[in-house]
Amino acid sequence: MKTPATPVRKAAAAPKRKAAPAKDAAPTAKTAGDGTGASESGSPRPPSGVLERGLSILECFSEDRLRLQLRELAECTGLDKATLLRLLGVLVRARMVHRFDNGSYAPGPALLHMGMLYRRTFDVGSRLQPALLEVMRQTGETVAFYVRDGDERVCLYRENSSNEVRHHVEVGTRLKLSAGGSSSHVLRYFTGGSTPQADAIARDGFAITREERVPQIASVAVPVFDSDGVFQGALVVIGIAPRQSASAQRKAVQVARQALAKQGFGSAPPKAGS
To answer: Is the pTM of the predicted complex or chain greater than 0.70?
Structure first.
């Protein structure tokens, strides 16, 4: 008796392999309209983040660049004009940038509001301003209070001299610490930076400069400490060099220290162990 033949099963067809997708083309140096390409003309490479791009626009404005055209903003930021217009629209709606009818742009009123809030974080302001006024009245010179912000110093408060010939200071002025000036030396010394006046400040408790940053201008600065011994910033008396003799500057130091003491501030760091 024959054994029935076992049916032969057909081997399953191997699954068809899909063709591998073609590799993406190599990215070009600049994608049109993305605003991220480096300019061949040497303009700055723009930041990649949206927030950083917006901040780079605001940082283009300065005391001598209060109104800028779109072309100037493009040169300053490295952003293309399409990207700039989109970001400027957001900043204008937020009132952080103001657009004039002629197409130029300027800092907006919202920045002033933010600046005032920043000043209010320094509750020492209500006590500092009377001290500055007192020093200005007794010395006849412009008096300002600076704080350190990175590698810059920023004027938070000031009392300008009533003299017809004077050095004028505006609140919000930012200056490089490396540019010099007595207040920059005091700020660097008491915030851990290096200064060629370190020995003099350690010995005398103040810094004096003559025509170091600006010709025909002399200044003397003292440190300001709050009642808890925390360093707040530098108070500086600034005047025309011919009026600022060595004796006049030392007298200004005494006046500043007395005015600060009346408002509860110190002009010398607390002694160790006190």
So the answer is: no
